[in-house]
Design goal:
Blueprint: E1 2-11, H1 22-43, E2 51-55, E3 62-70, H2 74-83, H3 85-110, E4 115-120, E5 125-130, E6 135-139, H4 140-147, H5 149-159, E7 169-174, E8 179-183, E9 198-213, E10 220-224, E11 229-234, H6 237-244, E12 255-266, E13 272-285, H7 298-303
Parallel strand pairs: 11-13
Antiparallel strand pairs: 1-3, 1-7, 2-3, 4-5, 5-6, 7-8, 9-10, 9-12, 10-11, 12-13
């Protein structure tokens, strides 16, 4: 069972007595745990989850010692010792902490800059060309984690105590001499970026729709396609004009043949949404008001 430690040291006048509000500490430590777990999922998506535990704190300001382990089963540990996998697991754990440290450093260096281009190198590194004509070369794993929204949100949560008066510094260090610090003046630099909605696909088709309700105030009408109900924006201005002039009237069973565009989007929260836009109303079909009489076939009468 591979293990590696990580120490988090919060310091500042507000913490001189070695105490820290749990409402500040608990979310920050959960953010750190989530960040490392998210990095593990990026680098080894099919691997086993790692366990992250708190050890007894050290004296001074406010220090929290983490114990990060890969697996806890004794039989598995014995097998690892025999086949040498334990060393690989240890390398992986230290690698996750190294990536976490690298992301923190990359956020600090990237603040206020835009990336113009990314060049992949053959040695597993990437070179970032920035908008001020400078460049950074970092491991590709650091950039992957830097671009991951879950990692960024978790790091922001970890850094949040620095926005509290009297907390001046957070230091992260481990037995592998991986160390990085964040000052309170840098706290806002770690606010996670707002994810943009991503359009997945757009398709246009001719369909028949039945009107459920009309809503002029927000420009969207409610329709049914026979299997579900949804709102759709009417983009056909000629049709809307005729409706407003009362030149088009609807019955409860009327239907419209329309050319409708459907746009699927992935929101910043990771949900898929669909927007419907009726580009053109092609036909207005009145619903049935009379029962069609079933007349006898004259050809049948002539046979009798």
């Amino acid at each position: 069972m591979a293990k590696v430690d990580l120490t988090v040291h919060y310091s500042g006048p507000a913490l001189n007595d070695g105490r820290m509000p749990i409402t500040d500490l608990a979310p920050a430590l959960l953010g750190l745990s989530n960040a490392i777990q998210a990095i593990r999922e990026i680098e080894d998506p099919s691997g086993d989850p790692i366990s992250i535990d708190i050890q007894a704190t050290s004296r001074g300001s406010f220090v929290v010692d983490f114990l990060i382990a890969n697996g806890s089963d004794f039989i598995r540990y014995a097998a690892d010792l025999l086949n040498g996998e334990n060393s690989t697991a240890f390398i992986n754990l230290t690698g996750y902490i190294s990536i976490f440290s690298g992301v923190v450093q990359l956020i600090k260096k990237m603040f206020g800059h835009k990336i113009r281009s990314v060049i992949k190198n053959q040695d597993g590194q990437v070179t970032l060309h920035l908008d001020d004509d400078t460049s950074l070369t970092v491991p590709a794993s650091h950039l992957r984690a830097f671009q991951d929204l879950e990692v960024r949100k978790s790091i922001e949560q970890t850094v949040r105590p620095l926005k509290r008066s009297g907390v001046d510094l957070i230091e992260f260090s481990s037995t592998k001499n991986i160390a990085v610090s964040i000052a309170s003046s840098e706290a806002d630099d770690f606010d996670s970026p707002v994810a943009k909605s991503e359009e997945l696909q757009s398709s246009t088709s001719e369909v028949y729709l039945q009107l459920v309700s009309v809503a002029f105030e927000h420009g969207k009408w409610k329709f049914s396609d026979g299997s579900s109900q949804f709102f759709a924006k009417i983009a056909d201005t000629d049709f809307l004009t005729n409706v407003r002039k009362n030149e088009v009237q609807f019955g409860s069973t009327d239907s419209l043949r329309v050319r409708m565009r459907t746009i699927q989007t992935m929101t910043e929260g990771g949900n898929i949404t669909a927007e419907h836009i009726i580009e053109k109303v092609l036909e207005h079909r009145k619903g049935s008001r009379e029962i069609e009489l079933d007349f006898e076939d004259p050809a049948e009468n002539s046979k009798s």
